[in-house]
Amino acid sequence: xxxxxxxxxxxxxxxxxxDYLRETLxxxxxxxxxxxGEVARMQENIDEMLARYHDNxxxxxxxxxxxxTMHEHMKRALMRNEKAKNKxxxxxxxxxxxxxxxxxxxxxxxxxxxxxxxxxxxxDWRAPVANAYYENNLGKCSYRAxxxxxxxxxxxxxxxxxxxxxxxxxxxDSEVIANDELLTKYLAxxxxxxxxxxxxxxxxxxxxxxxxxxYHNVIVQGVAGSGKTTVAMHRxxxxxxxxxxxxxxxxxxxxxxxxxxxxxxxxxxxxxxVYGVRQMTMERLFVRLLxxxxxxxxxxxKGTGKDAVKGSSRWFRDLAGYCRELERKAISADTVxxxxxxxxxxFRNGKTGVYDETGGKEVGKKDLVSLxxxxxxxxxxxxxxxxxxxxxxxxxxGRLLGKVKEEFLGKGISYSEAERKAxxxxxxxxxxxxxxxxxxFEMYRDFLSKQQEKGIRVEAPENEFDVYDLAALAYLYxxxxxEDVISEASHVVIDEAQDFGMMAYHALKFCINRCTYTVMxxxxxxxxxxxxxxxWEELKALLLPEAMDSFGVLKKxxxxxxxxxxxxxxxxxxxxxxxxxxxxIIRHGNPVLVKRAPERNALIKEAAQLCRDWQKKGLDTIAVxxxxxxxxxxxxxxxxxYVEVMESNLEKAEFGNGIMVLxxxxxxxxxxxxxxxxxxxxxxxxxxxxxxxxxxxAATRALHxxxxxxxxxxxxxxxxxxxxxxxxxxxVFAEDKENEKKSVSYETEGGKEKxxxxxxxxxxxxxxxxxxxxxAVTPEDKKPFISRQVKPxxxxxxxxxxxxxxxxxxxxxxxxxxxxxxxxxxxGKIDLSVKWFMGQPDGLYFQxxxxxxxxxxxxxxxxxxxxxxxxxxxxxxxxxxxxxxxESAWLYKESGNTVEFLTDEVCLRVNKGNGAIHxxxxxxxxxxxxxxxxxxxxxxxxxxxxxxxxxxxxxxxxNLYAPGISGKxxxxxxxxxxxxxxxxxxxxxxxxxxGYGLVLAADTAICCDIPAYGSYLxxxxxxxxxxxxxxxxxxxxxxxxxxxxxx
Length: 1047
Fold this sequence. Notes:
Elements: H1 14-52, H2 58-84, E1 91-97, E2 103-109, E3 113-114, E4 120-124, H3 131-135, E5 139-145, E6 149-164, E7 167-173, H4 180-187, H5 191-196, H6 204-210, E8 218-222, H7 228-242, E9 252-256, H8 259-268, E10 278-281, H9 282-288, E11 300-301, H10 313-330, E12 336-338, E13 344-348, E14 351-355, E15 369-372, H11 374-383, H12 389-409, H13 417-427, H14 440-453, E16 464-465, H15 467-481, E17 491-494, H16 502-511, E18 516-521, H17 537-543, E19 550-554, E20 556-557, H18 562-572, E21 583-584, E22 593-596, H19 600-616, E23 621-626, H20 629-639, E24 658-663, E25 672-678, H21 689-699, E26 702-710, H22 716-719, H23 734-737, E27 746-748, E28 751-753, H24 819-822, E29 836-840, E30 843-847, E31 851-859, E32 862-869, E33 891-895, E34 898-902, E35 906-911, E36 917-921, E37 926-929, E38 936-940, E39 945-951, E40 960-962, E41 971-972, E42 977-979, E43 988-992, E44 996-1000, E45 1004-1010, E46 1014-1022, E47 1025-1031, H25 1035-1045
Parallel strand pairs: 2-4, 8-18, 8-19, 9-10, 9-17, 11-16, 17-18, 20-21, 22-26, 23-24, 23-25, 25-26
Antiparallel strand pairs: 1-2, 1-6, 3-4, 5-6, 6-7, 12-15, 13-14, 27-28, 29-30, 30-31, 31-32, 32-47, 33-34, 34-35, 35-36, 36-37, 38-39, 39-46, 40-41, 40-43, 42-45, 43-44, 44-47, 45-46
């Protein structure tokens, strides 16, 4: 590490460690001075630019945005160093790199501390090399570097430090990070002090979960006190640090069971260098997914009711079936025909118009033009399970009009302008209107009514909805009436997952289907008896379908003393259910107190005295836990006469130092220095499974002290011995349990149907076509579609054909792509602004943070455009390109914020601010423009392929088409999405009437022009985006130029 090596500390003595700590604190002090100066200077620059900025000054706006971003980064670096003054690091590893032979000594802290621009005094705990500290034993091992490269090392020392106030108190050398001795010392501190030591005490099993790939789903079963919430928070921090290009803070949702828990979580995240992550309850998440259909003034969220069936998988399957029936009635799967004889321009009764010349006679099949087959419609519905019914209608309407326009371009019948207008008018909106008329609330009430007819007794809500009502409403919105597809989270973290039934997970998985999940919970703490999860099997079947998805178990409890843990386990033994085994860290404390008071007033006075005693002992966070919200409010009022009680309004309460009075369900996920369970009676906690779990939750909130205080008959869950044979445990073995999956199939009236990842959008069985011709469906038979009804739709009569071996809808030329491909993946910020550009013999190069762009002249009228992420452009030429050679006759010039690439016939102007290209003729006539913001996006695909999207701003009236291949008719491309890939892997061609064409050097190509997804060209190719821009005099010449490029 160059000059940095001289300052590395390889010493092991206390003096050497104290010297290095002093040097590190000096670095921190210098950084604080430098960063604070930079923050102040940048703020002055921002204020000055804001004072002078005008909307039309693009250059100043770009500088302003960059300065604001740098200012935020600098402020966070300042905060990291401010926090480091007390304890700059907590660990150290010494190792020998087996490849280079160098010995390294690295100190590890909560945040990285830079010595200078190239050397680190302290390494961030999230860095790949820091994994050796958490994961490996001494000796030969490895850590994984970026790019999934394993670096072999010989680890010779792992050391953990106790540092407070910038003073070295002690250090430990150990094979295991934070061994029981050190853990016990940390855990004996009060709650707030323990929070400061979390990063230093991450255990191996926790670290494995934290560092799992964010591209796969993870479910974690963690016993009470195992650090589930802590692991979830650190996982978010780890992902944002190591996958910054893919995940941004706003791409995360944290979902919890109540607002107090969520506020506690988000209050801790800034200490982990995480800002801007969105958090919400499950109810609020479903409300968010209802978008404009939810009216805060009209509707309210309520607590979960008593209709247990609404939280089940069965309920979701019934709702999915209801939607499938809606879809069947809304979208006709009949073949659509055009009878040219019904649209003939002529003169009748003194008027010129378009008339039906069939005279009402039967129509033969030979006289009809097939526009869209029923098989193609069914295939489209089957292949797009996550597209709403409304968007399917809109897409099919667009596809049908495209087919009509293709018929106009065909070599058969020639249509007059009047005939074309009449035909387009007749087929416009064939499958339905642009908007779904019935509200999700009306549909939900109709669904509930149908359920009641089946004998399922459920309450029909009016204006108040619980979490399962909201889940159903969100599913109905997404499945039926969604029009604009909005990208939601890229990763969802769910804490206390056992509190939600499978209905919520099925709906969530369908509504946010392009994200990954981290799910944390403990089925032993399921406090919602009829709704929540009593085991993980159904959720594993839903969320862990892939080999790389994982199920982990955290069985060590770091929270409770042995005495508290044993007391809580005895409560669980009263239940008749299996539990996961708990392995407490051996930390002893005071026995659990069970005390009686003669009556209510004495109970409150005793509780107040107990809280005062705990506070005198330095226990800062205290919880008084009651059975219900009503009892908690009553107790808070009484207790406040003797001691200071924190905010008792559950909508305003915040976790912190002091005495909190809470109902038991609001303590989920929280922990306190001391806990008082107040008056747990036999009436409030009967000896059944659900209440055993509820009381277990209350008992396991305590870190150091637990007391039960009662004035009535004490619950049998504490007073009575556990019945023999109850309280079985799960046997968990990593070899055969960790990734255990469960395949699920559901029975319906027609036999089995496949449930697509729990989406409920089951595959529709193909209908066997009938060979007999009835009457052709033409616009005269079609009734106007004005609004949607839940009742059955009138059937359309049409020609039913036998299956043939013709081309199916698919990835062949002209096929309709599935939504999974059309919808771009979520991504981090794509910075295409030009950092530098340079002319080389093989073209003009532009470098951005996101990747490298190259413009290369082939002829005066053809320019090759290639782009790759990073700096690794390839010279590879697609095998389908013929006669490839580079033209030397080109030049470039810089002018203000643009750079122009010029040949004899074309000019490509690159905007340095955003990297977008304007494609023009040599005399600067604009032909085509790339989208101004994030015009290129590349996803890594299997086998080294790049999945590229080139976003374009086509002019409103511009017509595009893909020339036909192998005798096939060309296809119009505006207003829809089509595969344009050629056979045998040949490049695809797009031609514009404006006098240009594009040859896409790709194995798979799609043209998309749908507002919901954007206007872009999609290409799959080896390693990079690769296409050719060509110009010519008219459409025919452009087409010939493009075909000459192709072998």
